[in-house]
Amino acid sequence: MTLIIASAHGAVPENLNGADLLEIRVDGIETNEAIQLLPSLLKQSPIPTIVTCRSISEGGFFDGEEEERVSIYNAALGCDSPPKYIDIEHEILLHHPLLIDSLTTEETGIILSWHDTKGRPKDLLQRAVAMQDVAGVAIVKIVWRARSIRDNIEAFELLRTKQQPTIVLCMGEYGTMSRVLAPKFGGFATFASVDGSTATASGQISIAELQSVYDFCSINTQTKVYGVIGNNVSHSASPAFHNAAFQVTGNNSVYLPLQVPEGWEHLKASFEELRSYEPLHFSGASITIPHKEEMIKLATECTPECASTGATNTIAILPKHIEASNTDVTALTELLQGSKKTLVLGTGGVARAAIVALQKCKSTVHIAGRTNKKVRALATEYLCQVASEHDDPYDTIVQCTPVGMLGGNSPDGNSLEILAPWVSLCPSMHVLDTVYMPEQTPLLLQADKSGCKITNGNTMFRLQAAAQQAIWS
C-alpha cells in the first residue's frame, strides 16, 4: 500500500483526512523556536509524523550550521510524542558519516533523502545505488525536477528496481505522473499538499485531489493510463471528467495531465516513450493545443472525421495499431444543426473540426484568422470563403482560438474584436465558444449582453469527452 504524506510548513493543518503521515517542515523556523514548538506540534498531530529540516541547497529554507539541524532532530527525538521518521539529507552523510547512528532510535526511523530542484542530476543512477546501500535507513527518498514527462519513466524504473522502501518523485509541471502513479510502481509514499496550506514543493497535488479526482488508493500495477497531451493542461477539465467516468464504470484506469511543449520533436519523443514503456499500460490520450495536427502523424489508422480535418483530439492505443479520431467533429455537428451562414474564428485543429461539422450541417463557412496566408490556405482546402466586412450577416459564430482561455496567453481577449472587428452581434445569432474555462469568456459575455443564443465550451467539452469514453471502452 502506497501512503499519502501530507506536508506542511511549521504547523499541523486542520484537515488531514486521507493522509497517512504528516511531514512537519521546520526549516522555515529559527532553530530555538523550532525546538520550542516541536513538542506541541508532534503531540497535536492526529497521525504519525515526519520531522524535516530541508536545506536551501535542496529546496528548503535552512541555512544554518549542521550542528543546529542536529539539535532540532535531537529535540524531536526527545519529545513525549516522537516522530515516526526524521528526514536526513544524503549529502550530509558525505561529511558526517556517523550521523544516522547518532540519530537512530527504536521509535523513530530515518528517511534518507536527496533533492535536485534544478533538473535531472547527472549522477542520478549512481546516487540511487549508493543510497540503497546505506545501513540503518528505513526509507530512501529521491526527488528531482523533471525536464519533461519522460523523466517520470526513469522514476518508475528506480521504483521497480528498489531494494528497500523507496520514494521517487519528480517535481514541477512535468512530474504529476510520478506523484499519482506511485502505487502502480510500488512507491512507499507520495507527498501531497493540504487544502488551505502552502505546498512545500513544486507540483504537489492536494490530498483531496489525489482521492477525489484520481482515486489514488485504487491504483494498482494493472491500472491503465490515459491523459490529455497539450502545452497548457494544468487547468484542463479532462482529468476530473474522465476519472469520474472510469470510477462510475468500474474501469481500472486513471487519466492524467500530460504536459508536452510545442514542437514535433517534443511530441514524438514523449508519446513514443510513454507508449513503448510496457509497465505503464499507456492506452490512449486526448490531444489538445498545440498538438492536434502533428499527432495525426503518429497514428496508424484514422477515422473519416479525423482524416477530413487533418487533426485529431483522441488517440486509442491498441495492441497492433494507434487509432486517431476526432470527437470535436462529433460534438460540433450536434451543436451546430440549423446553421446556414457561419463565421469561424481561427485556423487551427478546432477550426478544422468546426468547418467539417458545419459542412455536414450544410452551412456556408467564412473564415477569419490572424494570418492571411493560413486563412486563404484553409479556405482553399475546404472550399470556404475568406471572411470580410462586405459579407452579409452571419447567423452563427464559432470561436476556435485559445483567446479568452483561463491560463492562456490572452485570458481577457475577445477573438471577434481581434479577428473580425466589423461584425456586430445581434439577437438572431448563435455564438459558440470552444473555450471551456472559464464558462463565460469575454466573447460569450458580449454575446449574452447582445441577446444572442450562446453555447459555452463546457457543453462541447462534455459531448466530445463522452465520445472519447465510448472509443476507449
What would you note in describing this structure?
By secondary structure, the chain is an alpha/beta fold. The chain folds into 3 domains: 3-219, TIM Barrel; 226-326, 3-Layer(aba) Sandwich (Rossmann fold), CATH 3.40.50; 330-461, Rossmann fold, CATH 3.40.50.720. It is 33% helix and 22% strand. The chain has helices at residues 31-44, 66-77, 90-93, 99-103, 124-132, 151-160, 176-180, 207-212, 238-249, 264-276, 304-309, 327-335, 349-360, 372-382, 415-419, 442-449, 457-472, and strands at residues 3-9, 21-25, 49-52, 85-89, 109-116, 139-145, 166-171, 189-193, 205-206, 224-230, 253-259, 282-287, 301-302, 314-317, 322-325, 341-345, 364-368, 385-386, 396-399, 430-433, 453-455. The strands form 3 sheets. A 9-stranded parallel β-sheet has the order 7-6-5-4-3-2-1-8-9. A 6-stranded mixed β-sheet has the order 11-10-12-14-15-13, with helices on both faces. Strands 18-17-16-19-20-21 form a 6-stranded parallel β-sheet, with helices on both faces. Strand 3, helix 2 (66-77) and strand 4 (85-89) form a beta-alpha-beta unit. Helix 12 packs across helix 13 (349-360) and helix 12 crosses helix 17.
Chart the SSEs and their pairings.
Elements: E1 3-9, E2 21-25, H1 31-44, E3 49-52, H2 66-77, E4 85-89, H3 90-93, H4 99-103, E5 109-116, H5 124-132, E6 139-145, H6 151-160, E7 166-171, H7 176-180, E8 189-193, E9 205-206, H8 207-212, E10 224-230, H9 238-249, E11 253-259, H10 264-276, E12 282-287, E13 301-302, H11 304-309, E14 314-317, E15 322-325, H12 327-335, E16 341-345, H13 349-360, E17 364-368, H14 372-382, E18 385-386, E19 396-399, H15 415-419, E20 430-433, H16 442-449, E21 453-455, H17 457-472
Parallel strand pairs: 1-2, 1-8, 2-3, 3-4, 4-5, 5-6, 6-7, 8-9, 10-11, 10-12, 13-15, 16-17, 16-19, 17-18, 19-20, 20-21
Antiparallel strand pairs: 12-14, 14-15
Helix pairs in contact: 1-2, 12-13, 12-17
